Amino acid sequence: MDQSDSPPLKASSMDNVVRAMCYLVLVQKNRMSQNDTCIYDGEDTKFKIDYESNTYNIYQFLNNHPGGVNYVKPYESKDVAQPMRRYDHSKAAYYLLKEYQQGGRKKDEDDLERLVDWNKPMLSQVGKLGTKYSEWVISPVDRRLRLFDSDLLEYLTITPWYVVPMIWIPIIIYLAVIGTKKYIHITKDASPFIPVVLSISEGIVLWTLIEYSLHRWVFHMEPSGKSKSMIYFHFAIHGLHHKVPFDSRRLVFPPFPAAIITFTIYKLTSLFFCDSTHLLVIAGGLLGKSSSICIDNLSQVPIIHT
């Protein structure tokens, strides 16, 4: 049976999916608070430490410490120079510490933040960093980042993690159901369970390979600084996560551009997968993608010791 005998899916199931995604993204409301709540159980909003004759209030960083709050508590009001050297903190950690200096971050010649204006949209500025970009983007700060001057574009790039399952799970279910019906219609298979599961699993494996490739050769590439376009591209797709790792609105890839990429992958994979299982493979890929995002977010939840 050829593809012309397959059940009518209203031109393209993916067209309907993309329309639905665009709608869900546009009606998304109630953004996360502009100020994250710190779960440290101290009495006030101060947690001071000393380092090389300077005082730092790291209260808002406590729940972002990789080891958890209790690893930091014993050092309140103490000098942390020796412990930081003992535990071999990275250059990025020392750079981040400057964010919390009492009296504000010092604008010295070594401070890369003097190269940009944090009161303006950042995407339009990073291109001018040139060869300094690679060093700047891996030097983290604890701030909120605005990408675009346009409120609409900015809105479409801010995504709390829970929006991912809210949008993608209904789409995954839809594609799995429609894909199963299409498989049965084309193959006349009376026992479709195993083939359906295998096709979805194939999609999960495919996404795993795609995700690894993206992280290995795209996300973690190092722009030479000679191409502004390459800097814009790198910062928009991944660099911003290194620059503002604690901006909870930007920890996951936004659904709107993800819908465009998904539709592109759908079209490309239609050249390689048979019509009977194609939608199931896409459903599996989206399941793998959504699961990895949720797991990654859970891995970043603050560690609380009782």
Topology:
Elements: H1 13-27, E1 48-51, E2 54-57, H2 69-72, H3 81-86, H4 91-97, H5 123-126, H6 133-137, H7 151-156, H8 163-187, H9 193-219, H10 228-243, H11 255-269, H12 278-299
Helix pairs in contact: 1-8, 1-11, 8-12, 9-12
Keywords: Endoplasmic reticulum, Heme, Iron, Lipid metabolism, Membrane, Metal-binding, Oxidoreductase, Transmembrane, Transmembrane helix
Domain Cytochrome b5 heme-binding: 24-106
Organism: Acanthoscelides obtectus
Q: In words, what does this structure look like?
A:
It is a single chain. The chain has helices spanning 13-27, 69-72, 81-86, 91-97, 123-126, 133-137, 151-156, 163-187, 193-219, 228-243, 255-269, 278-299, and strands at 48-51, 54-57. It is an all-alpha fold. It has 2 domains: 3-33 and 156-299, no CATH class; 40-106, Flavocytochrome B2, Chain A, domain 1. It has a two-stranded antiparallel sheet with strand order 1-2. Helix 8 packs antiparallel against helix 12 (278-299). The longest helix is centred in the last third of the chain and has 27 residues, at 193-219. The termini are far apart. It comes from Acanthoscelides obtectus. InterPro entries: Cyt_B5-like_heme/steroid-bd, Cyt_B5-like_heme/steroid_sf, Cyt_B5_heme-BS, Scs7. One of its GO terms (molecular function) is fatty acid 2-hydroxylase activity. Keywords: Endoplasmic reticulum, Heme, Iron, Lipid metabolism, Membrane, Metal-binding, Oxidoreductase, Transmembrane, Transmembrane helix.
